[in-house]
């Protein structure tokens, strides 16, 4: 993470927009815990309930389970506001309907900044990025302009949600980081707890102990030791 710039700190409200339960925990949760402890307002909006994410478990069972795990993960880092848009897991499409839902969320929360997903085809050489992540990341970046423009989705204004042109940046969990957030030991422990809240999902991914998996995943998302870790983002300014 050498050469990265510090993330902007002159803001009060951030909206975390992700495709699935557990997406916030793989890259952003330590930073979220740090911000929440500073008194900044953080809300989550997820496109799906992750109902197609556990092999062998039908969506009707997996969806409520993964929603409950995400609520526990939010509580671990101090986030109380969680919304699901109920788009289909694994079948996200880059549609006007998705952009409208995202613009609605941005107008409702009126954030200074956004946290979202890598929208590119890969995470690293030889590591493919899921179609849901690609679609969702691009849709979020486009929805910033939609939320600010009174004429793109005028029905949102008619519903009492006026345009919001106050989004100054979007920070992506990305393989091409430009900025970083320093996080302390307490935030790292909260982030670990948030990952471990996805217990059933992690058990389906690997036979390794959940805590061991979570620690390894958290180390991938940060650099440094537990007393001096940093979370990296790729910053787009508006």
Give a summary of the structure in a few sentences:
By secondary structure, this protein is α/β, with parallel strands linked by helices. The chain has helices at residues 23-27, 29-37, 59-77, 96-109, 131-148, 154-158, 185-196, 199-205, 210-221; strands at 5-6, 13-18, 41-46, 81-84, 113-117, 122-124, 127-128, 169-173, 179-183, 222-223, 229-237. The radius of gyration is 17 Å and the shape is globular.
Features:
238 residues; alpha/beta; Rossmann fold; nine-stranded mixed sheet; 9 helices; 11 strands; 42% helix
What does this protein look like?
By secondary structure, the chain is of the alpha/beta class. The chain has nine helices and eleven strands. The strands form two sheets. Strands 1, 2, 3, 4, 5, 8, 9, 10 and 11 form a nine-stranded mixed sheet that branches. A two-stranded antiparallel ribbon has the order 6-7.
Class derived from helix and strand content: alpha/beta
CATH topology: Rossmann fold
What distance lies between the first and last C-alpha atoms, to the nearest angstrom?
24 Å
Give the rounded overall mean pLDDT: 94
Strand content: 15-25%
Largest sheet: 9 strands, mixed
Helix content: 40-55%
How many alpha or pi helices? 9
Q: How many strand segments? A: 11
What is the CATH class?
Alpha Beta
Global shape: globular
What topology emerges from the helices and strands here?
Layout: E1 5-6, E2 13-18, H1 23-27, H2 29-37, E3 41-46, H3 59-77, E4 81-84, H4 96-109, E5 113-117, E6 122-124, E7 127-128, H5 131-148, H6 154-158, E8 169-173, E9 179-183, H7 185-196, H8 199-205, H9 210-221, E10 222-223, E11 229-237
Parallel strand pairs: 1-9, 2-3, 2-5, 3-4, 5-8
Antiparallel strand pairs: 6-7, 8-11, 9-11, 10-11
Helix pairs in contact: 2-7, 3-7, 4-5, 7-9
């Amino acid at each position: 993470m050498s050469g990265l710039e510090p993330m902007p700190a002159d803001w009060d409200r951030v909206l975390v927009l992700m495709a699935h339960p557990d997406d916030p925990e793989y890259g952003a949760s330590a930073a979220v815990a740090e911000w929440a402890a500073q008194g900044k307002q953080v809300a989550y909006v997820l496109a799906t309930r992750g109902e197609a994410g556990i092999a062998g478990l039908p969506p009707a069972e997996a969806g409520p389970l993964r929603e409950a795990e995400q609520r526990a993960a939010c509580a671990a880092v101090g986030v109380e506001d969680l919304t699901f848009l109920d788009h289909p897991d694994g079948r996200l499409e880059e549609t006007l309907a998705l952009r409208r839902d995202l613009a609605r969320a941005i107008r409702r929360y009126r954030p200074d900044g956004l946290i979202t997903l890598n929208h590119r085809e890969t995470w690293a050489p030889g590591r493919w990025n899921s179609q849901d992540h690609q679609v969702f990341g691009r849709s979020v970046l486009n929805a910033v302009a939609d939320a600010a423009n009174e004429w793109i989705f005028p029905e949102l204004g008619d519903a009492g949600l006026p345009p919001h042109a106050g989004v100054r940046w979007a920070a992506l969990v990305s393989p091409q980081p430009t900025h970083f957030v320093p996080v302390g030991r307490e935030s790292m422990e909260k982030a670990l707890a948030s990952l471990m809240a996805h217990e059933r999902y992690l058990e389906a991914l690997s036979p390794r102990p959940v805590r061991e998996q979570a620690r390894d995943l958290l180390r991938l998302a940060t650099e440094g030791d537990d007393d001096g870790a940093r979370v990296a983002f790729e910053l787009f300014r508006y």
